[in-house]
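Lecture notes, part 5. Sequence design as translation. It can be helpful to think of inverse folding as translation between two languages: the language of shapes and the language of residues. The source text, in structure tokens, appears below.
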């Protein structure tokens, strides 16, 4: 069993990364160049299909092996057109490398004997902190790929602060990595949870409700609004539980628990195909691998983290929220 699948995990998947982001040092271009030339520097390469990992026997990867097995190699400056510094790992610099920016020959050399692992698989196989490193790489590279031009004047922008900003040489604007807040919440009434189903999900899948925070709105207000818009149910007293980076491509999931006085839920705004109150016993049966007539989301998601945490409170004092 992986850490992500433990009965009551302390941290959501993709969290707990311990890398020193070198937020101050990275502003010194000379310091960054010296790190690039340091023989101890390493890269984590990534592409459209995820982070590059060294394939183990049969392609399997152990949960703890995964991060150290990420692509290593001495960095040549001519192979790194835009040095994206992730941070310092035990004093050694760790860079992200978009293999899509390499020459065909360099791409072959970088990927030879390795394979790309998508983030959902990484979240399932790696320990949360290691999957968090993979999520960090993908989040940064996703942002750079999608923000090469100035949103203010349309001019091409340059990487600055070793990848933490992009600077426009024409109008002087600085652009920062974008993170989109999403609220996701367990809503409880009478020992039941409000679970819904979106179109396109695997058959039988139910999960907690979620939605983007709107401009000019607090996260707590977003919880109440989303639940009412998607189900017609009035949720109240939202309490923050945990958050999770979710770089698909750039979300930050803000996990809440709220309570409700009940009512008959119905899919109101077209986002859900169905929405129900599900009792604790049925939810526990789904967690235990039984067949209560529906399936819960996979352990890689904060949705499952929140549901598992709620179920684990059976018989316990509710003050855990
Ligand atoms: Zn500009």
């Amino acid at each position: 069993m992986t850490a992500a699948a433990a009965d009551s995990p302390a941290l959501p998947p993709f969290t707990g990364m311990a890398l020193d982001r070198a937020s101050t040092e990275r502003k010194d271009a000379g310091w960054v160049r010296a790190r690039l030339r340091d023989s101890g520097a390493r890269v984590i390469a990534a592409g459209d299909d995820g982070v590059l990992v060294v394939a183990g026997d049969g392609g399997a990867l152990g949960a703890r092996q995964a991060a150290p097995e990420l692509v290593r190699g001495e960095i040549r400056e001519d192979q790194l057109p835009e040095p994206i510094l992730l941070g310092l790992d035990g004093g050694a610099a760790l860079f992200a490398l978009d293999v899509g920016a390499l020459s065909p020959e360099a791409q072959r050399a970088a990927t030879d004997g390795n394979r790309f692992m998508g983030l959902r698989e990484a979240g399932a196989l790696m320990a949360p902190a290691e999957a968090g490193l993979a999520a960090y790489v993908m989040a940064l590279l996703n942002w750079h790929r999608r923000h090469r031009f100035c949103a203010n004047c349309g001019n091409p922008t340059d990487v600055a602060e070793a990848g933490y900003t992009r600077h426009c040489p024409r109008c002087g604007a600085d652009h920062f990595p974008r993170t989109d807040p999403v609220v996701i919440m367990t809503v409880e009434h009478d020992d039941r949870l409000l679970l819904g189903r979106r179109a396109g999900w695997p058959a039988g899948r139910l999960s907690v409700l979620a939605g983007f925070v709107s401009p000019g709105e607090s996260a707590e207000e977003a919880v109440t609004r989303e639940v009412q818009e998607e189900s017609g149910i009035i949720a109240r007293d939202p309490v923050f539980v945990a958050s999770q980076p979710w770089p698909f491509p750039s979300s930050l999931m803000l996990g809440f628990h709220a309570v409700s006085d009940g009512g008959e839920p119905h899919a109101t705004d077209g986002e859900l195909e169905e929405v129900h109150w599900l009792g604790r016993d049925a939810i526990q049966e789904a967690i235990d691998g039984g067949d209560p007539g529906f399936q819960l989301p996979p352990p890689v998601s904060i949705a499952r983290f929140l549901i598992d945490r709620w179920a684990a409170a059976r018989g316990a004092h509710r003050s855990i929220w």
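The translated text above is only one of many valid answers, since several sequences can fold into similar shapes. The first helix runs from residue 29 to 37.
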